[in-house]
Design a protein that fits this description.
Blueprint: H1 2-39, H2 41-44, H3 51-54, H4 56-60, E1 64-73, E2 76-83, E3 88-96, E4 99-107, H5 114-149, H6 152-174, H7 180-207, E5 215-218, H8 220-230, E6 243-247, H9 248-263, E7 271-277, E8 281-288, H10 310-322, E9 326-332, E10 335-343, E11 346-348
Helix pairs in contact: 1-5, 6-7, 8-9, 9-10
Protein name: Signal transduction histidine kinase
């Protein structure tokens, strides 16, 4: 009897030793996976969405069947993932500033000690994604703070006024003596806008205060034509269109940022502009017969690509939202459409204006 008891104790001890050894091997494997994920931080940087493809080879070596994510990314919907949607489901939401992600894990069922090991690696991945989101938010905040210190909007106004001066001088220098009167007439039509901008600059420089959003009777098509010209686009738009009572400063900042963004990649492209009055406001639709150099989901993301003019478009969207409106984008069959919508306190006809 004692011999059998001793034999059972030996077997139990061996089983414990084997189990501990197996768990040690498993633990080391999960630790390696976590270390591999951490080693990817330099490649991912602050681009949080890059993690889902970058970490795919590491995650697939774990008992993970599939991964899905979706959310809102600086005003646009993003989604993606890989693998199958089956097995045990685990959900996690990450939110930092204008970025929100819902992550769905689809995992092979796991029990015992392997479960907390697996959860530890998944938590490492989620923490790394969240850190990238925080890094992006901090980078954006730092950039905006720095640009605020440099009076960014004041610089835009100076730039626009300088562009008008350059345009005026170029037209005068290139004009034939026989059509000087015609050139003078064209310049006179935009001289009032240049004067208002100069007056605004003088007031801001003397008062060092943000100008109030005064409402003006505006022809949005004419405004779009002027700001397109500032950034090198020539648009044939109808004159004497309907006028609407809108915040002048918001219109300027929205159109300036939008065409500054387009000037980075859409020079020479066919651009169509349409006015779309709506019940609660008015919309300007700007259709570009060319695709942007980045995906539409990330079009409004600041600091993503200088070639796409992301910061200018981001600021245009902020200006629209500050005025109670919105700036959105949608793909078309042969390009992209930007729609700038602004609230309409009251609308008047051109004769009333």
């Amino acid at each position: 009897m004692l011999e059998w008891l001793a034999f059972a104790l030996v077997l139990t001890g061996l089983a414990v030793v084997v189990s501990v050894q197996v768990l040690r091997v498993e633990a080391r494997r999960y630790v390696r996976r976590a270390a591999e994920l951490i080693a990817l931080r330099e490649q991912a940087g602050v681009d949080a969405l890059l993690w889902f493809e970058l970490a795919k080879p590491v995650l697939q070596r774990m008992p993970i069947i599939g991964l899905r994510y979706r959310g809102e990314w600086y005003g646009s919907q993003v989604h993606g993932g890989w693998g199958d949607q089956q097995g045990e489901r685990r959900q996690r939401r990450l939110q930092v500033g204008d970025m929100q992600l819902d992550i769905d894990w689809h995992l092979q069922p796991s029990r015992g000690e392997r479960r907390p090991m697996r959860e530890g690696v998944l938590a490492v991945f989620e923490l790394l994604v969240e850190q990238s989101m925080m890094g992006k938010a901090q980078a954006v905040s730092a950039a905006l703070a720095q640009q605020a210190e440099l009076s960014l909007y004041l610089q835009h106004d100076v730039k626009n006024l300088a562009q008008w001066v350059l345009l005026a001088t170029d037209q005068l220098l290139e004009a034939d003596p026989s059509n000087l009167a015609e050139v003078a007439g064209l310049l006179r039509s935009s001289a009032e806008i240049a004067r208002r901008k100069a007056e605004g600059l003088a007031k801001q420089l003397s008062d060092r205060q943000t100008p109030e959003p005064l409402l003006r009777e505006l022809d949005l098509l004419s405004e779009a034509q002027i700001y397109a010209g500032f950034h090198g686009f020539h648009l044939e738009l109808p004159s004497n269109g309907p006028r609407f009572r809108l915040a002048k400063l918001a219109v300027e900042r929205c159109l300036d940022g939008l065409f500054a963004h387009l000037a980075n990649w859409a020079t020479g492209a066919d651009i169509r502009v349409r006015l779309r009055p709506e019940a609660q406001g008015v919309c300007v639709s700007i259709c570009v017969a060319r695709l942007p150099p980045i995906t539409i989901e990330r079009l409004f993301e600041p600091l993503l690509s200088d070639a796409a003019g992301g910061m200018a478009l981001f600021q245009a969207r902020l200006a629209a939202q500050a005025a109670g409106g919105e700036l959105i984008a949608a793909l078309e069959s042969n390009g992209i459409e930007y729609r700038l919508c602004l609230p309409l306190p009251s609308a008047t006809s051109a004769n009333e204006a």
